[in-house]
Amino acid sequence: MERERNILSRHKNIVLQFPFYWYSTPAILKEWIDEVFSRGWAYGGGEALAGKNLMVAITSGGPEKVYQHDGANRFTMEEFLRPLEQTAHLCAMRWNKPFLMQGVRYLDQAQIDLICSAYVQEIKKLG
Ligand SMILES: Cc1cc2nc3c(=O)[nH]c(=O)nc-3n(C[C@H](O)[C@H](O)[C@H](O)COP(=O)(O)O)c2cc1C
């Protein structure tokens, strides 16, 4: 955990890149946050992450249209991501617009390449 905290301390931009599992992060990423973002370091008297950018980059099986109020998943991605947005807020981090690659099984290689280029641009914009 100390090693992970040292890596975070050295960087201004933190991107959590993960596949969407059961409307959330995979369990192992949740555990990583549980262990690394500790009280007295990340919040509750600690400010180690304050001012850093937090961006999430997510692949999902479901396409954008199922992440609408009238769609199969009933809630938007923005709504599903509220716990992470609030985690950033608690740690005084800047919450950036999530980067989404949705409906992955419907994408062909040319579309994947385009989305990857856009991803690189978004990361560069973090500065
Ligand atoms: C355990 C599990 C849970 C999943 N839950 C969701 C989900 O809640 N919503 C969704 O859109 N896709 C879901 N998927 C599909 C994954 O998001 C998708 O396969 C993944 O983003 C593709 O990335 P990968 O090629 O790196 O696995 C799930 C997949 C698995 C294996």
Ligands in the structure? Answer: flavin mononucleotide
CATH topology: Rossmann fold
Helix and strand string, N-terminal first?
Answer: HEHEHHEEH
What percent of the residues sit in helical stretches (DSSP H or I)?
25-40%
Please indicate the count of domains.
1
Proportion of strand residues:
15-25%
The rounded Rg comes to 16 Å
CATH superfamily heading: Flavodoxin domain
Mean pLDDT: 98
- CATH architecture term: 3-Layer(aba) Sandwich
Terminal CA distance reads 26 Å
Q: Class in CATH?
A: Alpha Beta
Largest sheet: 4 strands, parallel
Low-confidence stretches: none
Shape: globular
How would you characterize this protein structure?
- The chain has helices spanning about 1-10, 25-35, 75-80, 80-90, 110-125, and strands at about 15-20, 55-60, 95, 100.
- Strands 1, 2, 3 and 4 form a four-stranded parallel β-sheet that branches.
- It is globular, with a radius of gyration of 16 Å.
- The protein has five helices and four strands, in the order H-E-H-E-H-H-E-E-H.
- About 10% of the residues are buried.
- Strand 1, helix 2 and strand 2 (about 55-60) form a beta-alpha-beta unit.
- The protein has one domain (about 1-125): 3-Layer(aba) Sandwich (Rossmann fold), CATH 3.40.50.360.
- Helix content is about 40%, strand content about 15%.
- The protein has about 130 residues and is α/β, with parallel strands linked by helices.
- The structure holds flavin mononucleotide (FMN).
- Flavin mononucleotide (FMN) binds next to strand 2.
